[in-house]
Amino acid sequence: MPFSFILFLVLWLVPLSVSAAPVRNPGPQLLNHDQCQSIVQQVFTLSASESSPGARWEKRFQLLKPYKSACYQHGDFLSVMGAAELNNHRLYDAQDTLERVLMLNPNHGDAMINYAQVLNLLGHTFAAYDLNQQLLKRKDLPPEVADFVSRRDQLWASRFSRTDIRLTTALGYDSNLNTAADLSSLTLGNSATLVLDEESQPVSGTVFNLNASVKRATALDDGMRLWQGSLYTRTGAEERLQESRYRHDQQQLDLHYKRLYYTRGRHSQKQPTLAWGLTGRQFWYNGSSLYQSLDLLLEQRQPLNATWADCRIESEFRLSRQHYPGDRSQDALDHKLQGGLECQITPQFMLYSQVSIAFNRALNDRTGGNRQIKDLVLAGQYRQQKRLWSLSGRFAHTADQSGYSAQLDNGNPRSQRSLQVTGQLRQILSGDLALEFSLTRLVQKSNIVLFEYDAERVSLALDWRF
Questions:
Q1: What highest taxon heads this organism's lineage (predicted)?
Q2: 8-state DSSP, 50
Q3: Distance CA 236, CA 218 (A)
């Protein structure tokens, strides 16, 4: 009969023998250091036959657990106990146990190594990094342990600051580059008819899109700091679209700063719960500055307790100062409230919904006066290995406070509704390169026909991430 099986019977059918004294149920009885060490040695012997490291640690945890109270005064036993709890994903138990070890012996090397790992997994990134730095200074670590600590230090240090560069190039087709109403004439009032020239008709054509962005993320002791800059350009890919009457090129520059704060509660992993940020935006149309804005953002995120999915609630307030260099009568102050719900239904499928309302106050004598904008967004994603399918829909309603002109819908305020549906397929070609195909349909209706239009857009893009 194998020796390990005999030893197993000795341990479980006969009380675990420690220094020739049977200890079946330690209860309040405390064991001495030698007895606790003997238990650890026997447990390691019994678990050695398991086929995988995970199975070995699971068995060690089950065998050591009954003796945790009896050996609560002995750091070496508790260090192994804490390692077993860590490897069985009992992070808070491991935290308590390893803190007890370090209280008994502040220089216990094994406990310090595992305690740093527990802190990192619980989200206490800086505390884990600081403890790992202390371990690097020790001269008594075995070479293989010192190498592990050094490699872990490099990995954790890389998380404190990261720079991501992204470049997306796309060739596409747009059936309405100038978002114009499909009208040959416009009736004013009850009699006058205005004939619209060819330049006022929808212009279609092939376009080249380029989007470049740089993001810098820095982890802080209580959260994260994000910097991001992005540049988007759209240029006509046909010679015809370079002519002044058909040219509808666009460029947009965005600069973002965001500061995120995390909770510090011990019994919940760190979550981004509060953020504030600033965004500056510059938009050019055919080389001329058309629009500028400066936004202040306040944002809150929190997990939602749901048994059917992993969900998160988002709420946001955005204050935006909008400026139109070519027509200052359009300047406005925008107040926007937004709420969102994001749910990971399965590892492959995610749903997102968002609703918002914005109050846009005219700062000068703007035609139409103040306006109110309501938005509803629904989106879903399905991931299939290296393929990502996305479908999103957006409905928006814009209502002006006053009318444009007595000649347009008898002077009634503008009411504008739009629906945009986009489908996208993203195929990963390699770790940093993906191919994207997207198709968009956009329809806008209004009581003033000048603001009605529809468009179809299709594009094929290559997306690089560095």
A1: Bacteria
A2: -
A3: 38
